[in-house]
Specification:
It contains four helices and six strands; from the N terminus they run αβββαβααββ. The chain has helices at 2-15, 57-74, 100-107, 119-130, and strands at 17-26, 36-40, 50-54, 84-92, 141-150, 156-164. The strands form two sheets. A four-stranded mixed β-sheet has the order 1-6-4-5. Helix 2 (57-74) packs across helix 4 (119-130). The two termini are 23 Å apart.
Length: 169
């Protein structure tokens, strides 16, 4: 019963999807970094010191780069307002220290990329960067597929955002 229902939903989604955005982001993918904190003190002793939270600079630069590319690709279209699915292909560099045989195996796709960065952290950076550009909020994403592979050539990230024509609640 449950399997039949899931298959019907999948068939419906596959038949009824529209591409909102397809994008290639050149450069090495950057995972979502943890926020940084610092204590700010004043020369005036009457003011209390406070903790200032700020984002990681690498993450900010990566998200800004994605946002710029996405704005160009979206043109004058408004952000999507309904449910959508996101597919991300993360292509990371092959370590230069590897032997020729190991590098060739990685290029052929015979080795999985199981080291950092975590696919989920790169996914989060991509999702946050597309907020208010490709969709109103990343909470609209109902399905995500993330692939992490070794790059043949230069590292980059490919993504495709598709609308799902199902009613929102």
């Amino acid at each position: 019963m449950i399997t039949t229902t899931l298959n019907k939903i999948r068939e419906h989604q596959c038949d009824m999807t529209d591409i909102i955005l397809t994008l290639t982001i050149p450069g090495e993918p950057v995972p979502k970094g943890r926020p940084r904190a610092r204590v700010v003190t004043h020369n005036d002793t009457r003011k209390k010191p406070f903790v200032q939270i700020y984002p990681d600079a690498k993450t900010t630069n990566f998200e800004t780069h994605i946002k710029l590319l996405a704005r160009q690709a979206m043109g004058f279209r408004e952000p999507h307002a309904g449910p959508c699915e996101l597919e991300i292909w993360i292509y990371l560099p092959i370590p230069k220290s590897w032997t020729k045989m190991k590098r060739e195996a990685a290029e052929k796709g015979e080795l999985a990329h199981t080291k950092k960065p975590d696919a989920g952290n790169v996914q989060k950076a991509v999702e946050d960067a597309l907020n208010e550009v490709a969709y109103l909020d990343d909470s609209q994403i109902t399905d995500v597929i993330v692939h992490k592979r070794f790059a043949v050539g230069l590292p980059h990230t490919n993504l495709q955002l598709r609308a799902i024509n199902l009613p929102s609640c």
